[in-house]
Structure formats: C-alpha cells, structure tokens
Amino acid sequence: MRRRRSAAEFSLGRLAFYSLGAGTLALLLATILIMVWQPSPEIGLAIALLGLVGAIAAMGFVSTRMTRRAIAEIEAEEEQAKTRSPKIETKDEGTRA
After folding, report:
1. Among 7, 44, 47, 87, which is most exposed with the fewest C-beta within 10 angstroms?
2. In what helix (H) or strand (E) does residue 91 lie, and over which residues does it extend?
3. Per-residue pLDDT, 94
4. Tally of CA atoms within 13 A in the half-sphere of 47 that contains its CB
C-alpha cells in the first residue's frame, strides 16, 4: 500500500523533475517520429515545432496539476484543523465576584 505524501512534503524539486520529464518525453516522441518517418525537411520542421509546443504544454499540464493538488491538500488539512481544534471558552468579566 502506497503512503500518501502530506501537503507539507510538497517539493519544488519534485515538481521541476516531473515537469521537465514530461517535456523531455514530448521532445523524445517528436525525435522518434522524425527518425522513423524520415519526412521531407518542411514536414520534419513542422514535427519538431509541434514537439516543442507539446513539450511546453506537457510541462504546463504537469506543473499545474501538481500545484493544484498540493494547494487542495493544504486547504483540506487547514479545514480539518479548524474542525478538530477545541473551542476555548472565555469567562465573562461581569461574573467576577
């Protein structure tokens, strides 16, 4: 069973690693397509440019998804902390003897 990370364990390093990994995979896919198909220079350039756009989109998608998930976990933990914390009762100053 996999243990879920808490929101306090959010790592910018992990975010960068996964984001750049997604971009690298998109560029790798474009490179493989160019190598396998061996298109004309114009088509190859179009595939390469689509690969760059795909890499940017993949990095944006991954980073946005990870950031939103972390923010949602932080908000959920804050909400749980509010409902769990005991209410402190204060004495009314008018009841002193």
Report:
1. 87
2. none
3. 58
4. 18
